[in-house]
């Protein structure tokens, strides 16, 4: 098998569409993962019994079941129960809630590092619980958790590849379709790998800058 | 330095105030009871099997400056933490201007809102400053006034700058706490407590984390507060010279109880309790 540049040029627009969907799915799922993860961490911290039990259940469920199983369940089983949702929202929500479980643990870890004295200061200044969380604890949690969260966003970006299994036209899905269509796999899969790597680089750069700044 | 004369004048003032109200209103004898700014009644506190405070009775008059001294672990800081509701007593009651911070009139526990309303008259400055590290000095100072007192931002900034000038750090408004020395951070922490206009200020070993030079600049600020305001001060410190200088009254703690209290001159020159003598000797020798 030889490398065919003409074929590469021919398939680039289709891969470009895959890149666009990959970016959209990553961005949307990251918003869910970061936001929901934060909400779970706060709920775990402020609640006594039921809230904690719910968070624990969430963590065990979504860290314990592979993403692919959840995707297939939502894509194939839910329609049989009368709930039909398009593939892209399913992909975004499943990746979002799975990574929310991981992110909540990161937030929770960073919350533990915030000294009790700062909470004492919040009491001494008579800050309401909402103000304490919004103005003090959440910014500090986010600041301290940022490198680890960025790692998870990076991981989520790579995991978007599994969405091709339910037909979402992410980069991996487009490469797969091109391969099937033309019975040539070398160029689409090689290009997909190279593009994933190239798209990773800005994240890695930001991460290294962040580590340097806070080392 | 607040002299014994000033102290007696203050007592005279309060005594007159009570007498005046009696004359005008002809109130029953129980109305003669002094309204303390803060009052601990038979307060005990245990951490597990370790009893930190034992049946503590302590009252502070409005505007009075009371310093708690005593060996480490004798329960001084716990008194301040209880007053600020950072800890709950095992037994007893604590009142701020006559209102319990633990129970309502039916002896039921207070809601968070009720508790917050009552203790809003208190402010506290901590040993480790506890400034919010991600906020600038000015943001540290205006956060509580804008969110708790509902001041406008312009109003809060104006007030914050007044207190920053008072502590001599008006040029540090845009700095972050990490860019300041320990002494500067502690002065900011004092200003942050004062912008809330507390009627009772609790100062918990505010110079313990500082070297002597930086401690001096912090103590100067507290001297100003002590001399120029009518705020009640409840101070925990190991700085005996400072305690003697600013206090109207000194309470000596040992093993969770007050073993002796009185005006600074008496405590430092003629202590009655043997343990007070031993304690003062050990700290003044160093």
Report on the architecture of this protein.
The complex is a heterodimer of chains A (215) and B (286). With 215 residues, chain A is mainly alpha-helical. Chain A has eight helices and no strands. The longest helix of chain A has 42 residues, at 5-46. Chain A is flat. Chain A starts with a helix and ends with a helix. By secondary structure, chain B is an alpha/beta fold. Chain B has one domain (35-285): 3-Layer(aba) Sandwich (Rossmann fold), CATH 3.40.50.300. Chain B has helices at residues 4-25, 76-83, 112-119, 137-147, 153-166, 182-194, 212-228, 240-246, 264-269, 274-285; strands at 38-47, 50-60, 65-69, 91-96, 99-100, 122-125, 200-204, 232-236, 249-254, 257-262. In chain B, β9 (249-254) and β10 form a beta hairpin. The interface between A and B is medium-sized, with 18 and 25 residues.
In short:
The complex is a heterodimer of chains A (215) and B (286). Chain A has a domain at 22-168: MetI-like fold, CATH 1.10.3720.10. Helices cover 83% and strands 0% of the residues of chain A.
Number of strands of chain B: 10
What is the share of helical residues of chain A? Answer: over 70%
Oligomeric category: heterodimer
Helix-and-strand structural type of chain B: alpha/beta
Helix content of chain B: 40-55%
CATH class of chain B: Alpha Beta
CATH architecture designation of chain B:
3-Layer(aba) Sandwich
Write the layout of secondary structure elements.
The complex is a heterodimer of chains A (215) and B (286).
Chain A: H1 5-46, H2 50-64, H3 67-80, H4 87-113, H5 116-124, H6 129-159, H7 171-182, H8 186-214
Helix pairs in contact in A: 1-2, 1-4, 1-6, 1-7, 1-8, 2-4, 3-4, 4-6, 6-8, 7-8
Chain B: H1 4-25, E1 38-47, E2 50-60, E3 65-69, H2 76-83, E4 91-96, E5 99-100, H3 112-119, E6 122-125, H4 137-147, H5 153-166, H6 182-194, E7 200-204, H7 212-228, E8 232-236, H8 240-246, E9 249-254, E10 257-262, H9 264-269, H10 274-285
Parallel strand pairs in B: 3-8, 3-9, 6-7, 7-8
Antiparallel strand pairs in B: 1-2, 1-4, 4-5, 9-10
Helix pairs in contact in B: 4-5, 4-6, 5-6, 6-7
């Amino acid at each position: 098998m030889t490398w065919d540049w003409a074929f590469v040029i021919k398939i680039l627009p289709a891969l470009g569409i895959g890149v666009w969907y990959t970016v959209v799915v990553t961005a949307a799922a990251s918003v869910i993962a970061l936001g929901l993860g934060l909400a779970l961490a706060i709920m775990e911290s402020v609640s006594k019994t039921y809230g904690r039990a719910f968070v624990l259940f969430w963590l065990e469920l979504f860290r314990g079941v592979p993403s692919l199983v959840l995707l297939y369940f939502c894509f194939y089983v839910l329609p049989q129960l009368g709930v039909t949702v398009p593939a892209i929202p399913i992909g975004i929500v499943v990746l979002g809630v799975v990574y929310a479980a991981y992110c909540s643990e990161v937030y929770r870890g960073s919350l533990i590092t915030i000294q009790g004295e700062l909470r004492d200061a919040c009491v001494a200044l008579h800050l309401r619980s909402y103000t304490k969380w919004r103005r003090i604890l959440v910014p500090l949690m986010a600041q301290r958790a940022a490198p680890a969260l960025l790692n998870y966003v990076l991981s989520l970006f790579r995991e978007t590849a599994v969405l091709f299994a339910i037909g979402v036209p992410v980069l991996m899905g487009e490469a797969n379709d091109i391969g099937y269509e033309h019975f040539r796999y070398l160029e689409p899969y090689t290009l997909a790998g190279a593009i994933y790597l190239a798209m990773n680089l800005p994240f890695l750069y930001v991460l290294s800058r962040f580590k340097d700044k806070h080392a | 330095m607040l002299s014994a004369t000033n102290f007696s004048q203050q007592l005279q003032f309060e005594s007159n105030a009570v007498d005046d109200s009696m004359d005008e209103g002809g109130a029953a004898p129980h109305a003669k009871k002094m309204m303390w700014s803060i009052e601990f009644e038979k307060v005990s506190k245990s951490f597990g099997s370790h009893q930190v405070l034992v049946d503590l009775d302590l009252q502070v008059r409005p505007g009075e400056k009371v310093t708690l001294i005593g060996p480490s672990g004798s329960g001084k800081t716990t008194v301040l933490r209880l007053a600020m509701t950072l800890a709950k007593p095992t037994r007893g009651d604590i009142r701020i201007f006559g209102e319990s911070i633990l129970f309502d009139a039916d002896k039921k526990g207070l809601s968070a809102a009720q508790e917050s309303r009552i203790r809003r008259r208190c402010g506290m400055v901590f040993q480790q400053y506890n400034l919010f590290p991600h906020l600038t000095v000015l943001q540290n100072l205006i956060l509580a006034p804008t969110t708790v007192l509902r001041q406008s931002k312009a109003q809060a900034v104006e007030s914050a700058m007044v207190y920053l000038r008072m502590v001599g750090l008006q040029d540090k408004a845009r700095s972050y706490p990490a860019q300041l020395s320990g002494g500067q951070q502690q002065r900011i922490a004092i200003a942050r407590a004062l912008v809330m206009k507390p009627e009772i200020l609790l100062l918990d070993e505010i110079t313990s984390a500082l070297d002597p030079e930086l401690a001096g600049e912090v103590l100067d600020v507290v001297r100003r507060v002590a001399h120029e305001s009518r705020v009640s001060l409840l101070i925990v410190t190991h700085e005996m010279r400072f305690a003697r200088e600013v206090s109207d009254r000194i309470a000596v703690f040992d093993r969770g109880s007050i073993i002796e209290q009185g005006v600074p001159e008496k405590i430092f020159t003629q202590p009655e309790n043997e343990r007070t003598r031993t304690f003062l000797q050990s700290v003044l020798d160093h």
